[in-house]
Amino acid sequence: MIKAIFFDIDGTLYSHRDHRIPESALWALEALRKQGVLLFLSTGRHMIMIEHLLGNQIPFDGYVSLTGQICLDREKRIFYKNPICREDTEKIAAFFNKKTVPLTLMEENRRYINFTSQASGDALKRLSSFSPPVEAYQGGELYQVSGFLCEEAAKELLSPLTNCKYTSWDDGAIDIISADGGKTVGIQKLLEHYCLSPDSIMAFGDGDNDADMLEFAQIGVAMGNGSQKAKEAAGYVTTDIDDDGIANALKHFHLLPASFS
After folding, report:
1. pTM here?
2. pLDDT at 67 over 70
3. Domain 4-81+181-252 carries which CATH code?
4. Strand stretches in the chain, DSSP E
């Protein structure tokens, strides 16, 4: 029995074509809530950006943010944090200060960039996001780094980071997190927090960074508009986000009545 469902945001729950959550998805999530199903977000976004993009449209029961690096309960209280180790943080800070490529640093309560470029602006625009403020690194703990890099710059940044890994989320854009992190790790922390088992959850995603959670969940659903890696990891591929993908998958698995529209 499915007791909880995890949703990626970009390209899964939020349509960047229409700049909104599809009406069918809003209705579906409300129907799930009335059935007592717990609703969670699992995203690479910082809470600053989650609140900017989604507002308070949906009262989620918890949040896996920054690709599993920080987890919060329904009251948005942090109960799990996994910062990048100090050794790699210092290397990232040195690269950040060189200002050879745009890097966005994510701290618990800060999101800032070393400088902006056409490439970084275009990538953020595709995700209905605004550019963070240009600020200096001040020695805080880092949880995620978003880079807008060519292959050569990516190698220069990543090769000395022995305790980190990365995932791609756009052409020429990557997120760097702790090597022992990821969306699945964050989901496991939420399951422990809410006393849930992996065989009671469903997950929806569309990107390469969703593949691990789609494999982990009892039912993993990739969006029709998703990446090949996400589709290969999922147990089921639904229709595109803009073709009622979430609602159609929920009907397929009998979590919504076939007559739901």
Report:
1. 0.94
2. yes
3. 3.40.50.1000
4. 4-7, 38-42, 62-65, 70-73, 78-81, 103-106, 111-113, 144-148, 164-170, 173-178, 201-205, 219-222, 236-237
